[in-house]
Fold this protein.
Amino acid sequence: MHFVLAAGQVAPPATERPAPVLNEAQGLLLRAVAEHSASHDVALAARIAPADLRSALGELLNKTGADDVTQLVVLAHAWGLLGTRPADTVESGAAR
């Protein structure tokens, strides 16, 4: 999902949810789950112990209000947290 959104093949959906303020570790975990699918790879990229991944991810999902990792990645793109612009900017949609 991340690579499709990042490549601009699909525009991220607009959301009325406010973007959460993430600390550095949470931002690293967000990017890791967006870019990796294997748990071990996510943990390494997020610089956390594999045994701590489940609880760290649970905290991130809770903080963002996402139901699962897929929704988390989509919301992160909508919020511009993964290096993309939020969907409700002037340059999105028909305004382009």
In short: The two ends are 23 Å apart (CA to CA).
